[in-house]
Amino acid sequence: MKITTSILAVALMLAHPVLGQADATALETALHGKPLGLRSYSVDPVATYTWLNGKLVPGAIQLHGMAAFFADTVRQKGSKITIEGQSSILVRNEGKLAPMGRVPMRLEIDLQGADAATVYPKLQAELFFPNMQSALGSLPEFVSDMLPFPADGKFQSTCHCSHIFQDGKWVKLTENDPKLTAPGFIKMSKNPSLNQMAIDAKVSGTITLIYYVNDIGRVDEVWLAKPLGPLLDESAAKSGRENLLRPATYDGKPVGTVLVQTISAN
């Protein structure tokens, strides 16, 4: 997957003021071609939302990521607003922020009978961060020191620490805390079709996923750190959720934590 380092990489960090728009045409004009950070951090091919009580509520997300969304068109049909565009995972390449490929993505907003004229002025601010710097700064704590991921896959935590979820909150531990036992695979999910998918797509390489593993060993969230191709990324994430894991423990007690897995496809 191609990594682009250009003027676009600089543009990723520039502020884009949020202004209320009156209709689909005005919203399309405001969004078109600009790198935008989704507040939901979804990188699913289709991200769904519902307008409820004056707020935008995201639907279930299968795959999260630190990505830039580029809107192409905004259309409304009945009580549904659709924003077609492209998504690009951000990585660090030679110390610079860079988009890695572009894949189609669609945002679907169900108005639930709300008056579109009252929704449009709020929609940009509800969907997107004011700029990419805000998106980066608002990453969840357990991935904030890991994303954007290095393009070469050679990861080292910027905080030289570990994160655990304990008693309803994230706790930062010093690196190699002796009381922490990392999660482990009891049974790793197999994905025999992944290599054939890579052959069909004429790509080869690795996919890096970050899992939030809860205190019973279940994968609750999957973050795409380094992509290879949309169908392969989705397939790898689906398999990742099926892994059977032993949860991490801290001082002998099960805790939630983060696990990084790199998957080869060739």
What do you see in this structure?
The protein is 21% helix and 41% strand. With 266 residues, the chain is α+β, with helices and mostly antiparallel strands. The protein has two domains: 7-138, no CATH class; 150-265, TonB (TolA/TonB C-terminal domain), CATH 3.30.2420.10.
Question: Can you describe this structure in just a few lines?
Answer:
The chain is α+β, with helices and mostly antiparallel strands and 266 residues long. It has helices at residues 7-11, 24-31, 116-127, 132-137, 141-144, 194-201, 230-241, and strands at residues 46-52, 55-58, 64-65, 67-77, 80-93, 96-110, 149-150, 161-166, 169-174, 180-181, 184-187, 205-213, 219-226, 244-246, 248-250, 253-265. 21% of the residues lie in helices and 41% in strands.
- Give the DSSP E fraction (strand runs of 2 or more residues): 35-45%
Q: Give the low-pLDDT segments.
A: none
**Number of helical regions:** 7
Helix content: 10-25%
Mean pLDDT: 90
* Shape, per Cα inertia axes: globular
The biggest beta sheet reads: 8 strands, mixed
| Number of strand segments | 16
Structural class: alpha+beta
How many domain regions? 2
Rg over C-alpha atoms, rounded to the nearest angstrom: 19 Å
Order of helices and strands: HHEEEEEEHHHEEEEEHEEHEEE
Give the termini separation.
Answer: 13 Å
Quick tags:
266 residues; alpha+beta; TolA/TonB C-terminal domain; 2 domains; eight-stranded mixed β-sheet; six-stranded mixed β-sheet; 7 helices; 16 strands
